[in-house]
Amino acid sequence: MSTATALRSRHLLGIDGLEPDEIDLILETASAMKEVGARPIKKVPTLRGRTIINLFFEPSTRTRMSFELAEKRLSADTLGMTVAGSSVSKGETLLDTARNLEAMSPDMIVVRHASSGAAHQLARICHASIINAGDGMHEHPTQALLDAFTMKERKGRLAGLKVAIVGDLVHSRVFRSNALLLTRMGAEVRACGPATLMPCGLDQLGVRATCQMNEAIDGADVVMMLRVQHERMQGLFLPSLREYFALFGLTAERLRHAAPDVIVMHPGPMNRGVEIDSEVADGRWSVILDQVANGVAVRMAVLYLLAGEGESSEK
Amino acid sequence: MPVVMDGDRVSRSITRIAHEIVERNRGVADLALIGIRARGVPIATRIARELKVLTSVDVPIGALDITLYRDDLRRHAVGPQPVIRSTDIPFSLDDRLILLVDDVLYTGRTIRAALDALIDFGRPRAIQLVALVDRGHRELPIRADYVGRNIPTARHQSVQVRLAEIDGRDEVEVEG
Lengths: 315, 176
Hints:
Distance between the termini of chain B: 7 Å
Strand content of chain A: 5-15%
Number of strands of chain A: 9
Number of strands of chain B: 8
Oligomer: heterodimer
Distance between the termini of chain A: 30 Å
Radius of gyration of chain B: 16 Å
Largest sheet of chain A: 5 strands, parallel
Shape of chain B: globular
Order of helices and strands of chain B: EHEHEEHEEEHE
Strand content of chain B: 25-35%
Radius of gyration of chain A: 19 Å
Number of helices of chain A: 12
Number of helices of chain B: 4
Order of helices and strands of chain A: HEHEHEHEHEHEHEHEHHEHH
Structural class of chain A: alpha/beta
Strand order of the largest sheet of chain B: 3-2-4-5-6
């Protein structure tokens, strides 16, 4: 089906820049990778002898563990770095950290950073392939890819799906990457949240914006709830969390407006009782744990496909 | 370029291989077929059909993609990674006699990768190798237990196996 047999870039910096056939290639490779996770020995020798550095400047549980597991299942050698206990806490800049790590000749660097554009900056100076694991409010491409994989697995397609994305959109790299990917693949994306948390430029993205939860959910095949990112706001955006839940929280009652076989997604970490009711998070609609499981397969696919671009010493 | 096996010859070879399998193993107890993608899979399926005719037993069939076990991934200095297809082995390998099936046996490196993969899936009692064509030029100490036809070739030539299930017709051609 897909016509691409390789990714065109040796980095994965965002969904922006990926063509639909490259997205298809990643999703198809991920289904083959998912089978590896079902084997008695969940490890293949594919990336033996490759070194991958996981550079996490922001806290992360799911994404970091998921990348580490993906790397280990492909037999790569992995090193992890968190900010606490590293020279970053002693004042080293991102670029100096990167240059020093680069001197150790890694094949790939997986980077998460609070600044938008951090991965792009590394890609300009590093020989290693750079994988963006979340940069500020910009992009989180592997999350969007695993969300798309989960939707495709459940619904059999992306084109024509009605997807409501609800929550704190302005701070959300997950929203941005998902909106780019889903519109590119022909899905209908509706964005919903408080006016103070809506980004500009939704029209250019091809996304319909609404502040009415019921309007966003009406007939939706997928409802994706995003986390209220307390750490990125200082009390100016929302009057109270209780009011937020009353207007934008996902409850079983509200879900009745969606398609009968609607699936509910959340990239985690969830704030139960803020953006999502426990009854929904744990209910039959929820594919939240499938998202986590699929994340490993999708990241294996990305690592495998980027590894095709040759030795780190070559341009 | 010469067609070295036509459709009839391909079918006769597969039928003969099925007979040899039954004779050598004194039946088909504990047997399972695993085809290497892509063209090993339809050959395995056809052998299973012949075995069913001979013994009335349904021998289980699996499909193996060996891409993740290849030893030449780093040799493509620049260029696309091979596309990975799915592996589907719906039975346990433990204590079974596995018939590993491929279309062309050449350097032996594909078979080496397949053996590594199979051993990660379990501990078969034994593994036997079936190849529709053996074209020589081995680089590893590997040989087939059942061969459809030995075809002497030069290294610069290529051997194309075409099967109705994938290519619309059965034939083996030597090119170059």
